[in-house]
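Worked Example 4.2. Consider the chain below.
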Amino acid sequence: MNRYDYIVIGAGLAGGVIARKLAEEKDKKILIVERRKHIAGNIYDYVDQHGVKIQKYGPHVFHTNNDEVYKFISQYCTPVNYRTKCEAIIDNIATPSPFNFKTIDQFYSKEEAEELKKRLSSYYINRHSVTVVEMLKSNDKKIRGFANFLFEKDYKPYTAKQWNLNPSQIDPSVLKRVPIILSYEDKYFNDKYEFMPDNGFLSLYENMIDHYNINIKLETDALEYITFNDDKKEILYDGIVSNIIYTGAIDELCRYRYGVLPYRSLYFDFQSIQTKSFQNAAIVYPQIEDYTRITEYTKMPFQDCNEWTCVAYEYPVKYDKHAKIGFEPYYPVLTEKSQNIYRKYKKYIEQYINLTLCGRLAEFRYYNMDQVIIRALEIYHDMEDKNGSII
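Applying the procedure from the previous section yields the following structure tokens:
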């Protein structure tokens, strides 16, 4: 008999949130199984030899408009207000990212810039921002011209680097993630809450799963212990029928029965530099073929590390679980073909009543951190039956 009520596969944010809710509110015994050597998934951070706190899997800033999410996270850390600042390099000129009216001033004559800003404000009246996809479809020739300039100089080459696809092949939602701001506002995010956890993301996660009902098992490939009973439509863990919450890649769970789902991976080149400041902004998107961005970690959050800083050059690479570089799946590649494959996996998995999917890889969707928490809380509430108890 299984001494755990739930087996959570993956010690990332999605699994941690559901585990905490089940353990604390329903008094359920939880085992979290993690393939890596550490908890916290892709928000894991650590301190390097110069005292710089580094996020191993790329830069994360917590931002949300959701009061419930903010309240939930604030139980496990003290939020420290933080404003993300990013720049993009176009033709050797540093401009705000997201692009704003300053960008127009930098690349147009004074007269042309004033006219374009007025056109944008009139065309998208009472709007804070607009996507490049919308602007490319505008009836206004000059707005379309500005959109084409940004698309050719930034969105298109970035998409080619990040996804190794032509923009026409990618889901339009990807191009909509970074809008054009219709003012001089230079905030990267425009959410009600934006902060860094006071002691870092690892500490936040440790506090979240610090409960007597939760146990952790690291460096364990859960897929080696999972089997499917197709006759009874049950999932077994280590030979025992178990309630499983799975946050990993769905195609891998299903032994690729409908084919391989495409993911992009990342490679980071971390460099310690003896200087107080390396670049103007925490994150810079260069106009260069190889890497997509440069993150300076003494600016995320602001850290004084005795004249040392650390920068990370971020290279998108093809995902291959057997490769030395690119063995971690980061981003689902959302195309019409890949989403059709995912729907087959989802339909198959829905037959198994003791298996719950949650998270970016399991649901083959791009989630920000707050969206992961919203989704995890939704799934937790969906697990309740009509009497308010957990199955």
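The domain at 6-39+209-258+334-382 is CATH 3.40.50.720 (Rossmann fold). The chain has a mean pLDDT of 95. Compare this with Example 4.1 before moving on.
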